[in-house]
Amino acid sequence: MEKIPVFQLNDGNSIPSLGFGVFQIPNDGATYKAVLTALRMGYRHIDTAVAYFNEEEVGQAIKDSGIPREQIWVTSKLWLQDYAYEDAKKAIETSLTKLGLDYIDLYLIHQPYGQLTEAWTAMREAKEADKIKSIGVSNMTPKIWKKWQQQGMFDEVMPSVNQVEYNPYFQQMELRKLMAENHVTLEAWGPLGQGNVELFNEPLLQKIASKYHKNIGQIILRFEHQEGIIVFPKSVHEERIKSNQAIFDFELTSDEMDGIRSLDRGQGSHNPDAPGVQEMLLNAFDVHAND
Ligand code: NDP
Q1: Strand duo 20-21 + 45-47: pairing
Q2: Which of 48, 235, 236 to mutate to test the pocket of ligand 1 (most atoms within 8 A of CB)?
Q3: Is residue 163 in contact with ligand 1, taking CB distance under 6 Å?
Q4: What is the CA(193)–ligand 1 centre distance, in A?
Q5: What does the pLDDT read at residue 227?
Q6: 88, 82 in Cβ contact below 8 A?
Q7: What pLDDT is attached to residue 19?
Q8: pLDDT digits (tens, 9 = 90+) for 72-104
Q9: What is the pLDDT of residues 242-269, one digit of tens each?
Q10: CB 240: neighbour CB atoms within 10 A?
Q11: Distances (CA, A) of 156 to 125, 139, 144, 151, 159
């Protein structure tokens, strides 16, 4: 098992640069099994969210793994319905309870719409109270980022990360420049293009994979790692969980990096700037349906 390198965030905390994502894994035993498998295979970073409805099983797997709490990085995310100050405070407590943890390593504003400054205030306070170690945002495009920055939202505390869609077809060049200027680390959601078959059939990736005796997923994740981006591929299959983290025993050359950079199409599957996204998301996930 290779050691997973850490990246240092702008608040001084060190985050494992590769983790395990649990979006769309149900809370019916499947999340428990996948997270426990991942932890046993050496992952030390789990990415969940209130809107994934599986924080309980993430927490139970962490507990049962027997791994000391401080060795595992746990990220969760506040959902859109809870951005009003009092709601956000309550939602943070609920996440802590569901995860069964005294603190959460990283908490994100999951979607950049609505009462963001109220949510951010509640998160800043939770960070001061040591209930959350790092705070960040997600799905912020350059346009959305600039709007909130100009309104002073980040004057007190700069987000540590911005978690956005990223894969070789969507390399977020403009956003990365903006984030670098602000010392904000990019996290990739959908680092494997959410299993995009076209991506997995790219001849260049196949060629590089055979050179290193690695699979396509490993080449994609290694590329992203060398770009300085945090990744947390999701899989429910043991073989993939195992192979997706075995990317630290080889290095892509600068020509290979340039080659993969040229696959960028500048467009992803989700456009947070599009009209109606907030309503679409609110309709898709109701985190209070069972309250
Ligand atoms: P990924 O890019 O991680 O792709 C996951 C898909 O790829 C699954 O269908 C999986 O199938 C398949 N897969 C996994 N490994 C391999 C492999 N080695 N070869 C071929 N196929 C593979 O997509 P996600 O959307 O899950 O993104 C990762 C994480 O990012 C999420 O789990 C979540 O934590 C986070 N996220 C955050 C969002 C946000 O708005 N902030 C939005 C979306 C995701 P199988 O499970 O069957 O192996």
Answers
A1: parallel
A2: 235
A3: yes
A4: 7
A5: 98
A6: yes
A7: 98
A8: 999 999 999 999 999 999 999 999 999 999 999
A9: 999 999 999 999 999 999 999 999 999 9
A10: 16
A11: 11, 21, 18, 12, 10
pLDDT digits (tens, 9 = 90+) for 202-248: 999 999 999 999 999 999 999 999 999 999 999 999 999 999 999 99
- Residue 63: CB within 6 Å of ligand 1? no
Task: Please tell me the distance between residue 151's alpha carbon and the centre of ligand 1 in angstroms.
Answer: 34
Q: Check pLDDT > 70 for residue 107.
A: yes
Residue 223 near ligand 1, beta carbon < 6 Å: no
How far is Cα 286 from Cα 21, in angstroms, rounded to an integer? 20
Interhelix angle 203-212/216-226, rounded to 10 degrees, is 90
* Sheet containing 45-47, strands listed edge to edge, beginning at the edge strand earlier in sequence: 20-21, 45-47, 73-78, 104-109, 132-138, 161-165, 185-189, 230-231
Out of 234, 239, 287, mutate this one to test ligand 1's pocket (max ligand atoms within 8 Å of CB): namely: 234
Q: Is the CB of 21 under 6 A from ligand 1?
A: yes
Q: What is the DSSP letter of 82?
A: G
Report the DSSP beta bridge partners of residue 76: 107
> What's the CA-to-centroid distance between 125 and ligand 1, angstroms?
31
**CB distance 46 to 58 below 8 Å:** yes
What's the distance, CA 217 to chain centroid?
17
> For residue 183, what pLDDT band results from cuts at 50, 70 and 90?
very high
pTM of the model: 0.98
